[in-house]
Write a structure and sequence with these properties.
about 1250 residues; seven-stranded parallel β-sheet; elongated; ATP binding; SF1_C_Upf1; hydrolase; nucleotide-binding
């Protein structure tokens, strides 16, 4: 090995030497394990360990281990097993020993030893050993004895621990020329220096500090801009949700059940990180997981931008070659980016991003408005489905705001009770309809009210008796009450009748009509008459019949003066009337001159006018004693007396009841006054009594009883029967608010009968319509759904998302290339100096630096060339410095990684995403040991990194399942492991396939030496048949233990050799411990467990019986894409597992039962009914359910259209799936695109359209059904 030569270990088969064949079998097993580990983890751990260190450390710890590891490979060359050194791997120290030596001996180790390279050492074995001695003599206390320099190996001696302990002294270590060929995993030793450094640095106080340092504790409710998100691969809503959480700076845990696109998500996350200039690290122990992501990114053109490290020693050459190629391609990258219209691509990308944001915001606004129920207690959706604009409604625009649907149920209950009471007590014929409120009355009031009724009737009788005695006729109490209202008029009449003259005048005109005895007319004449006395006054000496003649005399006298003096003299000397004129002038105390004549003329005119008015007064027969004397005072007094009489008459006539009981014309004024006093005294008794009655009876009831005392018995009888209900009803009325009363009144006006059902229906519809009006006014987007614009927006959004995904791929490559050359620096001669030294180190042929040294020295430049790295946790510790050099660290298959192995990798990132599935395999100690530490600290009680991260980081569950073509393949796991959370939509065309997705092949096998030969032979037979009939299908054989796996592997090798068939590259043979992460088209199970030769069934199921063993079953049964074939020797009922401690065997029995049902077509798709969150009225699907439209078990839809019991199309509504979609994009893009991809015809229906035009919606459904049927 030191000389680099290959060694022939022995023959593959030697018919003459059994020991050779035993050895050959062991070598084959070792080779197979080495191959398996490489396939599983990407590392090659087959080494020759030599020489061996034996002894004790200074603390007494026993030591027996190799000092050096020679990396080797085993190959079959013809009939020989050949052992040779692996190229480019290199001899290494046993790092675990060196670390243990330093730890247990309490010394500081020379760190150069840990990564020491033997590359330049001599190939001569003696020189090599001498160089080894020279290297270690001052660094390690090891006994290099002369036996080590003999060119001969010492047989490996087996020790018991006690023997070994006695044979060696404390602190003494000796080298022996023993060698072991075997699996020596070295990766774990890379972790210890990291932990030592973490403890020394003290950067994290505890695990919680480590994880919370990766959290964005700021408010991250802001939205992620579309233009800042680059996801070039198809994505679903849950994956997008995870991307957005990461974009906001959160660290998260991804729970990714089988087939949910975990690798797809990781690929998109890495792509986005590269496109946004970040450095990202993907960590996983499983090679296949890294390879899947690497392959997807390579298909995007990112292969050379990724550093894939399965084994940091073996992969160094490949990594260096890629780095050199990247440096060489810098000019090509520039040219390629110039060749692409990068500016136009970015402009289109940004425009699409804005379109997506705008449309998504609008659709999200619609979803929010549709389902938001804080406004009124019900969502707009439920309002649509529980109301009808075509049904009767009342106007509650003023009241609706006081009736949200949080309080409405309470009011509806009150309303029902109110209507039932009102039906009895608000009828017009009900005796107690018009009553005082009984709301606060207690039971004793029943008797009080009865007594009140009796008292009223008694008073009525007494009053009528008294009135007859006083008035001479019976006066009803109600009449008396009317008079009582006019008592003021009686007093006014008494005041107006101030004298006997007035009383006389009143009686004189009493018989006249009120229209004839006009007070206004009389008052006008009064004013005219009194106006005659104004100015010069009235001539008062002449009799009325001489006024005209005297007026002529006066005129002649005044005319004679005007004509001539002679005429005046003639009139004075010869006129017979001059002395009459002079007497009148003297009587009026006027001078006999012109001024006197003028004043007399005025007085005479006034007198004539007065006489005219007096004549009119005398003509009114209802006026009496018109004055004859010309005296203003006398005349005025007469007028006032007449006016008082008229007023009295008007008052008397206005109190109609008085006319029935009084006749003033037959009695004197004094007697009339005395009569009124007696009447008033009698009336004064009523108010006090009425006040007492109205404490218990309403005014109308009092009036009714006073007018008809026969009602008293009915009132009392009804009250006795209904008293308590009346109290309750009135209390209910009192409790109503103003708005409640208003609504009840409007309902009554509309319904016009006290019908509970009609009241409630009308109330509910009216309030719902008014709230809808309010919501649609506040959120106009609600109306958008009923327009063509909505369909156009949805179509435009789908196109924009699809096109953006394509442009994301282009931009990703452009930015990755640009990153390589954008930071290049040049010297003064304009020669690039960036990458110069890095390129030198990765291209030189000697003294090649370890990968760790290159990365530590050049990581800034290196990460521009290769911004993404992929490695195992151990390789991460081996090659990357312990700093936060990555913006994002992604951990895949974290459920299989021990927590302590993943923590150092996480410490290298500013942000982390831990992905895995808690329902799949837990970490395994396969081919390595683990120190179990007894502790009750919660963090030490969780095994996997996934569980540990889940204690501190928020979790996101991926739910879309895309692996299985048939629901039968995933449904068992979905039900028993994932609580029905997985959403799997079968391909429409696959529904017509009647072949069950699961086949059960029974055999009569026997459980012997942990194997079942009959099953192994059947599995081989099935594999050969499938390989011939369906060579395009990938295959996997999964067993439930490793022994059966090896048996089948051997038999398949032999069968392929016999058939001269090369082992198919797609064929896997694994057991339930190591099949996680793999998937194939067809999976064949070999259960193997069976009765033994004696027919006894032992309930021993290996790892399946352990705690968490059921997870192994879950992994196994979820590997198939198209079909599962179960080869089994047992029937489910043979597994008596009731008393088994753990769940694994019980679930195995249930799965076999399930598989049998599927295989016999008893069960196809049998999802349990989803638990509904709302009442039936909330669901549009409940309205649409019919003979041909039924609720569907398929996800992403609510109903299925059928024809002749065949599913023909899907119906999407705005029910749960729409509401629970994580985004508007999910509902309007991802789900429809998935349906189209799966070949489903579908229709989307909304509650508002059903509300607006139910018949059109039903017609569209019928049309869809008829189309598919034809």
């Amino acid at each position: 090995m030191i000389a680099g030569k290959s060694i022939a270990l022995g023959q593959v088969l030697d018919s003459r030497m059994e020991s050779n064949n035993v050895m050959s079998e062991r070598i084959k097993r070792l080779q197979r394990v080495d191959h398996f580990l490489f396939e599983e983890r990407g590392s090659t751990d087959l080494h020759i360990g030599w020489p061996f260190v034996q002894g004790k450390f200074k603390d007494g710890t026993l030591v027996r281990c190799p000092l050096l590891f020679f990396p080797v490979s085993i190959a079959q060359v013809n009939n020989d097993w050949m052992l040779g050194l692996r190229e480019d791997a290199g001899v290494t120290f046993n790092k675990s020993f060196l670390l243990a030596y330093a730890y247990f001996n309490q010394i500081t180790l020379d760190e150069d030893l840990l990564d020491f390279s033997f590359e330049d050492w001599d190939s001569d074995s003696t020189v090599f050993r001498t160089q080894l001695y020279q290297l270690l003599k001052d660094k390690l206390e090891l006994n290099f004895n002369t036996e080590l320099f003999i060119d001969e190996l010492v047989a490996f001696k087996e020790y018991k621990k006690s023997e070994f302990d006695e044979a060696h002294q404390q602190g003494a270590l000796k080298l022996y020329s023993e060698a072991v060929l075997g699996i020596f995993p070295q990766a774990g030793s890379q972790l210890l220096p990291d932990y030592t450094a973490l403890i020394k640095q003290g950067s994290y106080n505890n695990l919680e500090h480590l994880f919370t340092s990766k959290l964005n504790l700021e408010d991250n409710q802001r939205q992620v801009r579309e233009e800042n998100t680059f996801t070039p691969l198809a994505i679903d809503e849950w994956q997008e949700h995870a991307v957005q959480k990461l974009k906001l700076g959160n660290s998260i845990v991804i729970q990714g059940p089988p087939g949910t696109g975990k690798s797809q998500l990781i690929s998109n996350v890495i792509s986005d990180a590269i496109a946004t200039g970040k450095k990202v690290l993907l960590v996983c122990q499983k090679r296949v997981a890294l390879d899947v992501v690497h392959e997807r990114l390579s298909q995007l053109g990112l292969k050379n931008f990724i550093g894939l490290v399965h084994d940091f020693r073996n992969d160094r050459k490949t990594i260096y070659t890629t780095i050199a190629a990247q440096v060489d391609a810098i000019q090509d990258f520039k040219n390629q980016n110039r060749g692409i219209d990068a500016i136009q691509v970015e402009r289109s990308f940004n425009q699409l991003s804005r379109t997506i944001e705008t449309l998504s915001d609008t659709l999200e606004e619609y979803r929010t408005a549709l389902f938001h129920d804080e406004e009124c207690g019900l969502s707009a959706k439920e309002l649509y489905l529980t109301s009808s604009p075509k049904m009767e409604s009342i106007n509650v625009k003023q009241e609706y705001a006081f009736f949200d649907f949080k309080v409405l149920p309470a009011f509806a209950t009150i309303l029902k009770r109110y209507v039932r009471y009102a039906n009895r007590f608000e009828d017009d014929t009900y005796a107690w309809k018009n009553r005082n409120s009984f709301a606060h009355l207690s039971f004793p009031y029943l008797k009080i009210i009865h007594d009140c009724i009796d008292e009223l009737i008694e008073f009525k009788k007494q009053f009528e008796k008294e009135s007859h005695a006083t008035l001479g006729t019976v006066m009803k109490v109600e009449t008396a009450e009317t008079l009582l209202e006019s008592v003021g008029m009686l007093d006014e009449m008494r005041r107006q009748l101030s004298s006997d003259d007035v009383y006389h005048f009143f009686n004189h005109m009493l018989a006249e009509r009120d229209d004839d005895t006009s007070l206004l007319w009389l008052d006008n004449l009064r004013l005219r008459c009194m106006n005659c006395f104004d100015g010069d006054g009235v001539e008062h000496s002449l009799p009325s019949d001489q006024l005209a003649k005297f007026q002529a005399v006066l005129y002649k006298r005044m005319e004679a003066r005007k004509r001539s003096f002679i005429r005046l003299l003639q009139w004075e000397w010869f006129s017979e009337d001059k002395f009459w004129l002079k007497r009148v002038m003297v009587a009026n105390e006027l001078d006999y001159n012109r001024k006197g004549f003028q004043r007399l003329e005025a007085r005479l005119d006034n007198r004539l006018n007065l006489e005219h008015h007096l004549t009119a007064l005398r003509a009114a027969s209802w006026l009496k004693n018109t004055p004859t004397a010309i005296d203003s005072t006398l005349l005025l007094n007469w007028f006032e007396s007449q006016k008082s009489a008229i007023r009295t008459k008007l008052l008397f006539n206005s109190v109609r009841e008085l006319k029935s009981y009084a006749n003033p014309s037959k009695i004197s004024r004094y007697e009339f006054f005395q009569w009124m006093d007696q009447l008033k005294e009698m009336l004064q008794k009523i108010p006090v009594r009425r006040h007492q009655w109205e404490q218990h009876l309403s005014g109308s009831q009092v009036r009714n009883l006073l007018s008809d005392e026969s009602q008293a018995a009915l009132l009392k009888e009804t009250l006795q029967h209904d008293f308590e209900d009346l109290v309750a009803f009135d209390a209910l009325k009192n409790s109503l608010s103003v708005n409640e009363k208003a609504v009840i009144e409007k309902l009554w006006q509309a319904v016009e009968q006290w019908d509970v059902a009609k009241f409630e229906a009308l109330l509910q519809n009216s309030l719902r319509l008014e709230w809808l009006n309010h919501l649609e006014t506040k959120y106009p987007v609600l109306r958008l759904i009923s327009t063509q614009q909505f369909a156009d927006m949805e179509h435009e959004l789908m196109e924009a998302v699809t096109e953006k995904q394509k442009l994301s791929k282009q931009l990703l490559i452009v930015r990755a290339r640009e990153r390589v050359y954008e930071h290049i620096e040049f010297n003064r001669l304009n020669n690039p100096i960036t990458y110069r030294d890095l390129e030198h180190q990765v291209t030189k042929k000697k003294k090649i630096w370890p990968l760790r040294k290159v990365i530590s020295t050049f990581h800034h430049e290196l990460f521009d060339l290769m911004p993404c790295w992929m490695a195992s946790p151990e390789s991460v510790s081996a090659i990357f410095p312990l700093e936060e050099i990555f913006d994002l660290v992604i951990f895949d298959e974290a459920s299989q990684c021990f927590a302590e192995r993943g923590i150092p990798a996480l410490a290298r990132g500013k942000q982390v995403m831990v992905a895995g599935d808690a329902q799949q395999l837990q970490p395994s100690d396969l081919y390595q040991t683990r120190w179990d530490w007894e502790s009750d600290l919660p963090d030490t009680e969780v095994a996997s990194l996934l569980d540990l991260a889940g204690r501190y980081l928020p979790s996101i569950h991926l739910q879309g399942h895309y692996r299985s073509k048939s629901n039968d393949l995933i449904e068992f796991s979905n039900k028993h492991f994932y609580k029905g959370r997985l959403k799997m939509l079968p391909d429409f065309n696959d529904l017509a396939n009647d072949e069950p997705a699961i086949e059960v092949v029974p055999v009569n096998g026997i459980w012997e030496q942990q194997t079942n030969l009959a099953e192994a032979e059947m599995v081989v037979e099935r594999v050969l048949v499938l390989q011939k009939t369906k060579p395009e299908k990938s295959l996997a054989v999964i067993t439930f233990n490793a022994t059966q796996q090896q048996l089948i592997y051997d038999k398949l090798e032999k069968a392929f050799a016999d058939e001269k068939i090369t082992w198919p590259h797609h064929l896997l043979v694994k057991n339930i411990e190591n099949v996680q992460g793999d998937e194939r088209d067809i999976v064949i199970f070999s259960i193997a467990y069976a009765p033994d030769k004696k027919g006894i069934m032992h309930l021993q199921f290996g790892s399946l019986s352990q705690a968490g063993g059921e997870n192994r079953l879950n992994v196994a049964i979820t590997r198939a894409r198209e079909r599962i074939v179960i080869v089994t020797s047992i029937e489910p009922e043979m597994l008596q597992v009731d008393e088994v401690k753990n769940e694994g065997p019980r679930l195995l029995r249930k799965y076999l039962e399930y598989a049998g049902m599927v295989a016999s077509r008893q069960q196809r798709i049998a999802l349990e009914d989803a638990q509904t969150e709302h009442a039936r009225e909330w669901y549009l699907s409940a309205k649409l359910h019919s003979e041909f439209v039924r609720t569907t078990p398929f996800p992403f839809s609510d109903m299925v259209v059928t024809h002749l019991d065949q599913r023909k199309a899907l119906v999407l509504t705005d029910d749960e799936f729409y509401r629970n979609a994580l985004s508007a994009k999910a509902a309007h893009v991802y789900q429809p695109l998935l349906l189209e991809k799966k070949g489903w015809r579908f229709i989307r229906l909304f509650s508002r359209n059903y509300w607006l035009d139910k018949n059109k919606v039903l017609f569209d459904l019928q049309k869809l059904a008829n189309h598919k049927a034809s």
